[in-house]
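Model it.
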Amino acid sequence: MEVINTIGRRKTAVARIYLKEGNGKILVNGRDYAEYFPTGTLQYVVRQAFEIVSVDSKYDVKATIDGGGITGQAEALRLAISRALTIISEENRKPLKEKGLLRRDPRMVERKKPGQKKARKRFQFSKR
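Modeled.
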């Protein structure tokens, strides 16, 4: 099997991964994913695609992630891994699609409007 290269995005985070056969090692920006994503929830999000298709320790992942916060980065990485698993085997597509892992989450931060504090919050109104 050759190296599979895919990309995943979430908010402003972009994850590029290289997936190949191995023993389940996940490197993110040169560090172990458990060190890069400190909370158990984010570690679960990263491993979620592997657990759904039951190939926990069959593939190695080397990822480079830019932009966004750690939650957006973890979800971008999950999308990239899901896309790579569908390239490996078309049988993986159905369970991943049922869980919604092959869809890019379109929600983005709403822009700040002029004359307001934030996107929707306004300055305090004073009648007098």
